[in-house]
Amino acid sequence: MNPLLSRLQPYPFERLRQLHAGVTPNPAYKPISLGIGEPRHATPQLIKDALTGSLTGLASYPGTLGEPKLRQAMSDWLARRYGLKVDPSTQILPVNGSREALFSLAQTILDPSKPGATVLCPNPFYQIYEGAALLAGAEPWFVPSDPARNFAVDWAGVPEAVWAKTQLIFVCSPGNPAGAVMPLDEWKTLFELSDRYGFVIASDECYSEIYFRDEAPLGGLEAAVKLGRHDFKNLISLTSLSKRSNVPGLRSGFVAGDAALIKPFLLYRTYHGSAMSPIVQAASLAAWADEQHVIANRAMYREKFAAVTPLLSAVMDVALPDAGFYLWAGIPERFKGSDTAFSRELFAAYNVVVLPGSYLAREALGHNPGAGRVRMALVAETAECVEAAQRIVQFIQSQSH
């Protein structure tokens, strides 16, 4: 067996199941889960129609590069969304969701034969970053986050000796779990550091289309162009249809950026066996070509966040994020920072599931930045999310007496 597999930690949701094992939730309440970030709005009919209307595609092997018309649709979306000019033949690849691509990109980029091969991960973070680094033979280094800036990553907290060993960094903007969007000046800093030390930037942007203010979140490729980096040197952006179009089961997204990185990534993927099914390609083309369902989806999230956030902010340290579909909430002092106790007791008393924040982070520099917080995924319909929020308020108020 690959000995590196033993270094992988249990996924947060497995830890959550273990935490709740043996607990019998209050039967007076129907179960409501805010634990898993799985979109639950209806899949648009146009995507379903494209999927079922292309079943003849099952009779042929797909190419790893994807159909030219799909890559053109992806390029067109980048032009509409960010004002970018991206070559669909050399700077775009379809992928089977951003998770698969984040993992396989690391296997393509990293060279574990170099002493101290390092991957920078935000902290808290999406656990695929850590697993991808470990299974590529590199060491993850967890970058501290700044609670004063909505848990934005504190890149200035990385020592120069760590930058010198870094081969890849994962950026998540909008962030998971806190929803912070990285501003242009921080992109400028990372690009300058990349030029100095030669590392690749993987920009995970799967939450980019769920935002609450008039200005859409800045993307990595967009930041590069604003700073005159039209070749996207050492930059790969990853995005997905899962959250944007409510199709997590479709497993569809794309990567775009530096053609000098896309070429070896295509070679790796050809051997990896990760070509996108022709019927998924057809459904993806329909999704990327349509924006109306995205606007409607965003409006539903805005409605529920506007209803839920004021309820919870009265009893927890929580505010409207920049983007994404999570609330990242500080628990009351009564729990003495134990986000696991809060989650377990809430589940027992009110049958509501929330994810302990410490499960989404690692102790680094003597501190777990997720401790004392919980992540709530507002993915259900508005009424169910409001009911969950009301139960959480009741739970907290009951604990204060």
TrEMBL record:
So which domain of life are we looking at? Bacteria
Cited SUPFAM superfamilies: PLP-dependent transferases
Residues folding into a coiled coil are none
Q: Could you say which cofactors this protein requires?
A: pyridoxal 5'-phosphate
Q: What class of enzyme is it?
A: transferase
Q: Which UniProt keywords apply?
A: Aminotransferase, Transferase
Transferase among keywords: yes
Single annotated GO MF: succinyldiaminopimelate transaminase activity
Report the Pfam families cross-referenced here: Aminotran_1_2
Q: What is its EC number?
A: 2.6.1.17
Q: Which residues form the Aminotransferase class I/classII large domain?
A: 31-392
- Listed name of the protein: Succinyldiaminopimelate transaminase
